[in-house]
Specification:
Layout lengths: L1 E6 L4 H13 L3 E7 L11 H4 L4 E5 L5 H10 L4 E4 L6 H6 L2 H22 E4 L5 E3 L4 E7 L14 E2 L5 H8 L5 E2 L16 H20 L3 E6 L1 E3 L8 H10 L4 E4 L5 E6 H14 L5 E4 L4 E3 H18 L19 E4 L14 H7 L7 H14 L1 H9 L1 H10 L2
The protein binds nicotinamide-adenine-dinucleotide.
Keywords: Lyase, NAD
GO molecular function, one term: dTDP-glucose 4,6-dehydratase activity
Pfam family, one: GDP_Man_Dehyd
Length: 398
């Protein structure tokens, strides 16, 4: 049985990863460490924390004693670090906490894992570790900076690599807004306090791999979407506002491009990298699901309007008249400072080495996501109102 220490799993992607792993593996132990910031919500993992295979620890990844205590009590095989301050807008307002959590927190986890996994030294003085252990840092494509947008409208992508074509081509509608993509060789060039803190964390992880020969992997993924996404991020915010007939704020001219990845596809990638990734390697996760923000907003409006018309039972979640759900809701607001123009990942490495591919087409994924939000309005209300804080007290402070 493998034991995973998963940090930040009360947040969006970590929670989806834990759900995916518990479904996929019967024989598994997961210790969740999460400090429950505004972005962490126990309601997101309420079934999982009642599962015998899961232990939830509330605490900070920077707390050395606490992390050591987890390692003393559990035979941790894999540490998967999702915990982070993750919202670019918040990093522009208050950069310091991003540096503290994302950089120092990562270094603390690495250091404790190093001490607990180390067996001794080789003749060269390098550390040697227990077999089969690994630290996986969940990073972001934003560390690579910004790509140019070469086409006003998306064009069909012609893949040159035969191997990737076999893995990816038949499964998704491949399109792009530019000629260049982020590969694992693209130099790090972060622009925002958030991406700089994540890039710094990646460099610390690589430093531990070089200097202490730590068994590590880094995954860098594109923008995720799917269930349990905190309602201040683009897609859940747009859904929430559409349902109440509120204006939909879109930065600048809305033409910035992101490469959208369905969160379960990301969870699958992390599982593959933890179990089969070559030690010391970086894997980019994402691919060929590029879209402009404005088109995401329009598609979300169209999809909600269609569902409401075709399945009127859903209209009970509307706090506005159905006739108000149209493009008039869109309102362009002052652009984000230093707004990166385009992110796009080339997933050749993970596709050819590990057989991963972005399985979920955007049109399918966005409808699944919208339906999830329509069916889980209680979750949205709870997260938005802070009721989950009460839930925590009820669960853990009696
Ligand atoms: N969301 C995306 O589209 C995206 C894309 C690329 C990479 N990532 C990376 O994936 C990871 C997870 O992202 P997410 O969107 O799920 O984030 P999130 O903000 O939804 O969740 C972060 C979680 O970390 C916890 N946390 C924050 N600070 C902590 C601390 N000091 N100690 C312990 N726990 C702490 C929070 O309580 C929360 O549960 C992050 O590292 C992020 O940089 C996210």
């Amino acid at each position: 049985m493998k034991t995973y220490l998963v940090t930040g799993a009360a947040g969006f992607i970590g929670a989806n990863f834990v759900k995916y792993m518990l479904k996929k593996y019967q024989d598994i132990k997961i210790v969740i460490l999460d400090s429950l910031t505004y972005a962490g919500n126990l309601g997101t993992i309420k079934e999982e924390i009642n599962d015998d295979r899961v232990e939830f620890v509330k605490g900070d990844i920077k707390n050395r004693e606490l992390v050591e205590n987890i390692f003393y009590r559990h035979n941790v095989d894999y540490l998967v670090n999702f915990a982070a301050e993750s919202h670019v807008d918040r990093s522009i307002e208050n950069p310091q906490i991003f540096l503290e959590t994302n950089i120092l927190g990562t270094q603390n986890l690495l250091d404790v894992a190093k001490v607990h996994w180390m067996l001794g030294k080789d003749e060269g003085g390098y550390l040697i570790y227990k077999d089969g252990v690994k630290y996986l840092q969940v990073s972001t494509d934003e560390v690579y900076g910004s790509l140019s947008k070469d086409y006003e409208e998306a064009i069909d992508l012609l893949l040159e690599d035969e191997e990737v074509k076999q893995v990816v081509k038949d499964r998704v509608n491949l399109k792009t807004y530019g000629d260049n993509f982020f590969t694992e060789e693209t130099p790090i060039d972060p622009r925002s306090p958030y991406s700089s803190s994540k890039a710094s964390a990646d460099m610390i992880v690589m430093a531990y791999a070089e200097t202490y020969k730590m068994p590590i992997n880094i995954t860098r993924c594109s923008n995720n979407y799917g269930p349990y996404h905190f309602p201040e991020k683009l897609i859940p915010l747009i859904i929430k506002n559409i349902l109440s007939g509120k204006k939909l704020p879109v930065y600048g001219d809305g033409k910035n491009v992101r490469d959208w990845l369905y969160v379960e596809d990301h969870a699958k990638a992390i599982d593959m990298v933890v179990n089969n990734g070559r030690l010391g390697e970086v894997y980019n996760v994402g691919g060929f699901n590029e879209e402009q923000n404005i088109n995401i907003v329009k598609l979300t409006i169209d999809t909600i309007a269609k569902i409401m018309k075709e399945e009127p039972e859903y209209q009970k979640v509307l706090k506005t008249d159905l006739s108000n759900i149209n493009y008039d809701l869109i309102t362009f607001v002052k652009d984000r400072l230093g707004h990166d123009m385009r992110y796009a990942i080339d997933p050749t490495k993970i596709a050819t080495e590990l057989g991963w591919y972005p399985e979920t087409n955007f049109e399918v994924g966005i409808e699944k996501t919208i339906r999830w939000y329509l069916d889980n309005q209680d979750w949205v209300e709870e997260v938005a109102s802070g009721d989950y804080q009460k839930y925590y007290k009820q669960m853990y402070e009696n």
